[in-house]
Structure formats: structure tokens, C-alpha cells
Amino acid sequence: MVQLHDARRLHYDVRLEVDGVLKSWAVPRGPSLDPTVKRLAVFTTDHELEYAGFEGVHPDSQYGSGAVIVWDAGVFTNLTRDKQHKPIPAAEAIENGHIKFRLHGIKLNGAWAFSKTGEDWLMVKVRDAEAAPDLDLTVSEPRSVLSGLTIEEMAASV
Fold first, then answer.
1. Model pTM?
2. Which helix (H) or strand (E) holds 117?
3. Using one digit for the tens of pLDDT, what is the confidence trace for 23-45?
4. Number of alpha carbons in the 13 Å side-chain half-sphere of residue 151
5. Which of 112, 151, 152, 158 maximizes the CB count within 10 A of its CB?
């Protein structure tokens, strides 16, 4: 799932359920459908599964303050393989600094990869049938898949 979070800076929290927790990356500019675009992704603390459906406005809290909407929801399939094409478990792939996955979401579909580069990570769209270099879903699809609200409407709701 992907949450749009207006904390100190607006960013998209991309979360993959792995071994009973949500592994999380903050992606300031959001996921891109263009395979030539590399998006900064900052690996953050694991979140509890119950957080997956959260929408609202956080006061100062352990997860950061500000409005949150569920921008996209769905499931993912781990596509990570070793050199012999054997599957690598998602937790191990993340620990190794590279996970390739397919999203089956309401907005995002297709394959992406998170790759660690020094302290940070990059999120890159894999070249596949769902790649769409001319489409920016962060602009064309600003609303929550749960409530239908924009991040601005959520912030104003309190």
C-alpha cells in the first residue's frame, strides 16, 4: 500500500508487508511509471500491520505529524531472484539491499525495484507493459482510494 503523508515534507510512504510488519520507504516525489526515472526512497522504521488502513491527521506522534491518506492499496509479489534464478525471500532481499516486486494495486500495477545506494535507496519502475513514461499518477490521481479525499481535504477535516 502507499500512503500520502504531509509531514515536515509531503511524501509517499510505500509499504510492503514482510514477515508480519510493513517495511516502509518514504518516497518524496512518489512512484514513477517511467523506467528511466530513479526516485529517492528513504528506508524508514517498520510499521505495524494495523497502520495499513490509517487515514487521518496525526498530532505529534511516533509516525510523524500531519495528514495521511491511503493513496493506493493492493498486494505485492516478490520477484527477487539470485544469479541461479532461485527466489530470494523478501526480508533477505531487503537486508541485501535490493528487492524487485510486482504491485497489484488500484493505481499502481507492474514491477518496481528498491535498490540501496549508500545510505539511501532508489525506487525504479521496471520496463514492462505497465510502464507509462508520460503518465504521472501523483498528479492525475491525487485522491485516497479509501475515502476519496485529497491530502488537503484530509488536513482540513480536523
1. 0.94
2. strand 109-117
3. 999 999 999 999 999 999 999 99
4. 20
5. 112
